[in-house]
Amino acid sequence: MDKEINKEEELIINKQLSTSFVDAATVYTRSDDHCLIQWLAFFPEGPTEQARLIIPKDKLKDVIKYLCAAVNYFPQKPKQKKKLKPIAKKSK
């Protein structure tokens, strides 16, 4: 990790940022070792993109470790590497 967050530093809150409910995420790995995360919500009209983020792969691994610890869920690595299928098809 480049720099640990100082627990005593106050988090700056962006009050203009809205909060969205999401049902799923898709992750695409780019050739530059960054990942695109697409957050989706499922509505009667169909899956709708709520947010799109790009994060360095090593930072995403840290986020995943944190999320797993937060919900006390630690999945095991699959025996065979399977290609993940997107949750929703992209619209034309």
Low-confidence stretches: none
Helix percentage range: 10-25%
Total number of helices: 1
Residues in β-strands, percent: 25-35%
The average pLDDT score comes to 88
From the structure provided, what is the oligomeric state, counting identical versus distinct chains? single chain
End-to-end C-alpha gap = 39 Å
**Alpha-carbon Rg, integer:** 16 Å
Element pattern in H and E = EEEH
In the sheet with the most strands, the strands line up as: 1-2-3
Taking the sheet with the most strands, its summary is:
3 strands, antiparallel
DSSP summary, beta strand count: 3
Estimated structural class:
alpha+beta
Q: Quick one: overall form?
A: globular
Kindly describe this structure.
It is a single chain. By secondary structure, this protein is α+β, with helices and mostly antiparallel strands. It has a domain at 24-71. Helix content is 16%, strand content 29%. The protein is built from 1 helix and 3 strands; from the N terminus they run E-E-E-H. It has one helix at residues 57-71, and strands at residues 24-29, 34-43, 46-56. It has a 3-stranded antiparallel β-sheet with strand order 1-2-3. Strand 2 and strand 3 (46-56) form a beta hairpin. It is globular and about 45 Å long. The N and C termini lie far apart (39 Å). The mean pLDDT is 88.
What are its keywords?
92 residues, alpha+beta, 1 helix, 16% helix
Describe, in short, the structure shown.
This protein is an alpha+beta fold and 92 residues long.
What's the layout of helices and strands?
Elements (H helix, E strand, L loop, with lengths): L23 E6 L4 E10 L2 E11 H15 L21
